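Good morning C.,

I know you're traveling, so I'll keep this short. The sequence:
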Amino acid sequence: MAASSWKGFITFGLISVPIRLFPAARFSHIRFHEVHKKCGHRVQQQLYCPHDEEVVRRDEIVMGYETEDGKMIIVDPAELKAIVPQSSTEMQILQFAKLDEVDPIYFETSYFAVPEEAGRRAYALILGTMQQMKIAAIARVTMHQRDRTLIVRPYEQGLTVHTMYYPDDIHEAPGYGKDSKPQNRQELSLAEQFAKSLIKPFRPTEFHDGYQARIRQLIEDKSKGKSVLRVEKGKKLAPVIDLMSALKKSLANEKSANGKSQKSARPPRQRKSA
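The tokens, ready to paste straight into the viewer:
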């Protein structure tokens, strides 16, 4: 069984529910090591100071913050450790809110909250209340030596916990959101038609990481001494100038593709017996 990431209590007024948090999702990819091409052994990285032209030991490292005027403020790891908050065992519900009021951009890491045996009734009560009212909880906890704000929400008959970014963590991108309104009604109408033709239920199992699959195949082929096949690159794209023409062709291609798929899905006609 996977190890839990946090153990403590969800508190709801005077109700406390013992729970454990388990990672709900984790990026999965094939890990490579950096190796010496000459001999195939793993290399070791060293810390090097270009000013003194020497390799630096780990115990000689401190933290530095560079100010706008280029001055380096030196901070010792012991000084940082002295102000780190102690991880708490209480996840306190501060308020409830409609989930659609929370923009997904604030969501960071997801966890499954699993109740301990002694807290199952209270856990079910909180879950049932949130399901009935269609609300999520905003909670606070000190976890992994950081003060965290959390979203707690019902998900598939259980409570899922999401750590959240703070507003200061959300960055700005130059030009984002400017000149984004469509000006041509005909173009907008055609774009809506094309979008409607692509609407279908979302099934996560239909989507896969093809690149990771190709890496696994590459490793398997190389282990067997087979030659490695190269993936053909797609055609280069350029900005579309004639939007109306591009939308009409997109609609025609989608209708043609749907027609072919419907024909292939039909069962063959049975011949009538003479």
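Safe travels,
E.
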